[in-house]
Amino acid sequence: MDPLQNRVAVITGAGGGIGAATSVRLAAEGYRLALLDYSDEAVEKAQLVVRAEFPDTDILGVRCDVADESSVAAAAATIGGWTDRVHAVALVAGVLQQAYPVEELPLKEFDRVIDVNVRGVFLLTRALVPMIPAHDGGSLTAIASWSGQLGSPYFTAYCASKAAVIVFMQSVASELAGRGIRANSICPGNIATSMHTDALQVEADQRGITFDEMKTTEWAKIPLGYAGPPSTIADAVAFLSSDRASYITGTALDVNGGVHFR
Fold it and tell me: What secondary structure letter does DSSP report for 15?
């Protein structure tokens, strides 16, 4: 019997590049999936991506604005009506900040980034921890960033948000360790998602160069020479969610192609 049979994973941001790859990866592991995203269209997309490879996967699609308390509560209630327990939580949903000098950063943009990237992680953690059985290998994994480990100019809100995610998950790990529930974060570098390519295009336009020139410039900074595919982060989520990582909690796992060493 598959050891993961009837185990449930909840994935936020499931319609995005990393979220979709994570959904497919956990489906391959045999999990039942609760796929959350901001819109009905994104939720439908997430389900279609998984079913294209694993048509028999038991999937619950849930529209959820992770930054909205009532939306998260409704999503948790829907999940609770579908399953009596959750084993793996992948907090993938996140947004990138529009680039601004700090003295010009609008409060509305700062709040947007913090609301999704930090408030969303908190709200989902608070809502789902009661559904994770103690001492049964349960885990939470949040997607942070290497930008949460060092400051980058013009992205103060984003860097601050991802630093907050790292320390938040460390606090959760310390708090839940006695119940045998692990909590970790993953710090991607440049990952080849639409978020990454969109950011490259914006910067290329600002510099007056082509997208390919911008990509060459940025990827040259990565020791391995390329932006990793979303599957590299999905593999890390699957590992941290598994019994193979049973003695790992409170870590911030670097998956960045060598762009930043600690």
Answer: T
pLDDT of residue 1: 35
| Residue 239 in tokens | 């590992």
- SS3 of 11, please? strand
- For residue 195, the model assigns a pLDDT of 77
Q: Are 117 and 94 in contact (CB under 8 A)?
A: yes
Q: Which residues are catalytic?
A: 158
Helices (H), 5-118: 17-28, 40-53, 69-82, 107-114
Q: Are 158 and 113 in contact (CB under 8 A)?
A: yes
Architecture of domain 8-191+228-255: 3-Layer(aba) Sandwich (3.40)
b/e per residue, 190-225, with b = 16+ CB within 10 A?
bbbbeebeebbeebbeeeeeeeeebbeebbeebeee
- The confidence score (pLDDT) of residue 245 equals 98
Alpha carbons within 13 angstroms on the beta-carbon side of residue 146 total 15
pLDDT per residue as tens digits for the range 161-205? 999 999 999 999 999 999 999 999 999 999 988 778 888 888 888
Q: Where are the domains of the chain?
A: 8-191+228-255
Q: Tell me the whole-structure pTM to 2 decimals.
A: 0.93
Q: Which residues contact 67 (CB under 8 A, 6 or more apart)?
A: 115, 116, 119, 120, 123
* φ, ψ of residue 187 in degrees (nearest 5): -115, 90
Per-residue pLDDT tens over the stretch 33-47: 999 999 999 999 999
Dihedral sign, Cα of residue 247, residue 19, residue 12, residue 28: negative
Looking up tokens 């796929």, which residue turns up?
35
